[in-house]
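Bumping my old thread because nobody answered last time. Still need a sequence for this structure:
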């Protein structure tokens, strides 16, 4: 009979070593960017949803050290067409270009994220319009989450 006891010991010692090396969870409430960024987005429904999601993830700024300016562009294209030429599914594409500036107005970082989502157009006119609105809202959330991920990767650099 063999034992996995040595491998368990190494695993426990490895976890203890990682705990003492200064690693901190990126998604914790003690994140250094929480409440430190003021957000500016397009004055559209999609821009509002994007800004709302950014504030949910990073907190509303009380004393901002940075400003994040986000510009979104959206598009729509047919994804599924029947033999009769009717479109039954649409893809909603989006690109969000963002710029992070510090309190002096100097650009700290910039980037671009893109994503897509889709919706079905097989129901009534009202159902299709509701599905399109929901797809746009989902796209805004996806883009905001991608921006937050990039900012969290940058956070150690920003706090130097």
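Sorry it took so long. Here it is:
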């Amino acid at each position: 009979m063999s034992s996995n006891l040595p491998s368990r010991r190494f695993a426990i010692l490895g976890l203890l070593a990682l705990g003492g090396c200064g690693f901190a969870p990126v998604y914790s409430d003690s994140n250094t960017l929480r409440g430190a960024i003021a957000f500016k987005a397009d004055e559209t429904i999609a821009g509002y949803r994007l800004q709302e999601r950014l504030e949910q993830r990073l907190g509303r700024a009380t004393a901002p050290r940075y400003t994040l300016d986000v510009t979104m562009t959206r598009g729509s294209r047919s994804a599924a067409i029947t033999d009769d030429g009717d479109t039954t599914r649409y893809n909603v594409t989006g690109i969000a270009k963002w710029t992070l500036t510090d309190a002096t107005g100097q650009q700290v970082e910039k980037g671009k994220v893109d994503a897509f989502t889709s919706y079905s157009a097989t129901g009534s006119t009202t159902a299709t319009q509701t599905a399109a609105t929901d797809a746009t809202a989902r796209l805004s959330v996806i883009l905001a989450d991608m921006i937050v991920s990039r900012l969290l990767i940058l956070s150690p650099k920003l706090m130097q």
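The mean pLDDT is 84. Let me know if any region looks off to you.
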